[in-house]
Design a protein that fits this description.
The chain has one domain: Up-down Bundle (Ferritin). It is 79% helix and 0% strand. Helix 1 packs antiparallel against helix 2, helix 2 packs antiparallel against helix 5 and helix 4 runs antiparallel to helix 8. The chain binds fe (ii) ion (2 copies). One fe (ii) ion binds next to helix 1, helix 2 and helix 5. One fe (ii) ion binds next to helix 5.
Length: 222
């Protein structure tokens, strides 16, 4: 361990990011099935999916190396919603991937903003220079991929079939994303991560701004 103090908050926040990267990978599995006969799209989406699993592995390696291990703490939404929801979503995305692209577009926009700010925060963190550099390099590399994912998701939103129900479902997913990422005092299920985010310098207001911004941009694509 290279840290002087507060290592747990960086570990906790980066672990949460790692988990989100893994969820993105899972969401893309049924979408790939939908496009299995369209080689060009299939390979673009496969590259995207592989990037997400690579991001999860990069963060896992970083956490193991710098902090001993990731903090794997399941939140309320993980336990109650994600497990059940992911299954349902998979079945739907296999037939209509449009809402998945809308959701991932928002998640990618959010990620770039959040990771960029985390790189800014890490400069002043009370962590060793080695750990700071590792975090900065890992997040910078991930951001590069996420930028290309934003472009791909925008193209896929235009290209894929947009049904009435698909649009409705997209609104529902963005609402879920907002609830899941909600950092208000009332979001008791996020109390732990809110505390750690605050420790590393992210206010509730700033986190809410990232989510609102990404949803707003995604809504313009529907
Ligand atoms: Fe990613
Ligand atoms: Fe991504």
């Amino acid at each position: 361990m290279h840290t002087k103090e507060k290592p747990n908050s960086w570990n906790r926040v980066l672990s949460s990011i790692m988990k989100t990267e893994g969820t993105e990978d899972l969401l893309l599995t049924p979408v790939l099935e939908y496009y299995r006969d369209d080689q060009k799209i299939y390979h673009s989406l496969l590259r995207h999916k592989n990037d997400e699993s690579k991001h999860e592995a990069m963060l896992s390696n970083l956490l193991k190396k710098e902090f001993g291990s990731p903090v794997l703490k399941a939140t309320f939404t993980d336990k109650v919603l994600y497990k059940k929801l992911l299954n349902t979503l998979s079945q739907y995305f296999r037939k209509n991937p449009y809402p998945c692209f809308i959701l991932l577009y928002a998640v990618e926009v959010y990620s770039v903003k959040f990771y960029q700010s985390a790189i800014d925060r890490v400069k002043n963190a009370t962590l060793s220079e080695t750990t700071k550099n590792e975090i900065t390099n890992t997040l910078s590399e991930i951001i590069e991929d996420e930028r290309s994912h934003i472009k791909l998701m925008a193209e896929m939103i235009k290209y894929s079939n947009k049904s009435f129900f698909g649009v409705l479902f997209s609104y529902g997913l963005l609402a879920f994303f907002k609830i899941d990422m909600c950092m208000s005092k009332l979001a008791l299920y996020n109390r732990d991560i809110q505390w750690h985010l605050n420790e590393i310098g992210f206010s509730r207001k700033e986190m809410a701004a990232f989510v609102n911004h990404s949803i707003k941009i995604s809504l313009t694509k529907i």
